[in-house]
Amino acid sequence: MHNPYAHVDWASDLRVGSATHMHMTSQARLDNAYRHGIRHFPMSNYYPSAPYTARTRVSDFWLSQDWPARLENGDSLAPPINWNDVITWRDELDEPYRSQLPVEETEPLFPHVPDDAIISPNAEHHGFTNSTSHICSPGSAFTSGNIDPRRQYHLKDHGFCVGFGGAWQEAFEGMLEGLVYPGAGGITINHPTWFTRFSDEQVLEMLDFDEGVLGIEIYNDYSARRDWSLTAGYEPPDESAPGFSLNLWDRILSTGRRCWGSCVPDHSVGAEGNWRGRSILLMNEFTDRACLEAYRQGRFYGCLDGSGLSVVDFAATDASVSVSVNRAATIRFITEKGVSETAYGESAAHELPQLNGAPDLVFLRVEIDDDRGERLFLQPVMYRPRS
What predicted TM-score, i.e. pTM, was given to this entire model? Predict the structure, then answer.
């Protein structure tokens, strides 16, 4: 049995709001996320796919890119790169991009980072030659791509790759080598059913690549808010609702693989208004390393709103799993066979099926929802983990 919460002190551990996939391109967006309770910021931008810090300026990536720029012919442009010097085709550009050149030094994106907020390295990587996936790497300083992911400056027309420009396996190696703290943080597979439309086999191949591949997004708010009926020829995946990848998660867990599930806002975090999707990290100290270790070890649970419903105790043995929350809610125990038991109240326990004196199941996870629209997703306890 592997219980990710085995060493959590539910009475005293800190609970920290975070998200592995949230686009932070302005002070207003950071302020809005902070108002909504986020304190750990592994920002995941791809303008280019570079980790942001409290000192980041957009012009940093224009005036002195310090990693190679890949070309589609297999060559690369060595750093440092000043894109003002490279883009000699300014007359080809549409407005307002033509008039924006040459780029000059800009102000820092985040001039007022609160003292009780932590920014961790992360980025959203894309543009792989053998996959349409988008991948985040919380805790990694790995950088890829260039200043033109949306082709506004015609870099692709002049031979440059959009995004990483190589196989995802090569990029995964770079992300893992770039981890600031070995054994902390890792790789997450973004929106695996709605935008990317992964097959189960593709997800399993990525999960098997390395133990540093943490898992998948089980809720993506940007996907949930999109009107998919406007997408020509689009067939919704086998999921309960837009934005969710719970059926995929259960199929993965049924193979015995460890796969953590994350809830994220993606682009929906916005500069104002409400958005959904976050992780509640559990730790005994509020540090960058502790936040990233919680992600690696599965010491977190996903939720939609962070509206007050929270887990106050969780225990798992070979005989039963029990959970308690801070207010009455519906508690569901889910295994590879579906929902095994549903209870309502502030606590519930589920007796495990037995066979020859041992638990007769592959995994068990718990979902909790209340009448205010909040929903919690606990990480799975693995009873027959894949060796």
Answer: 0.96
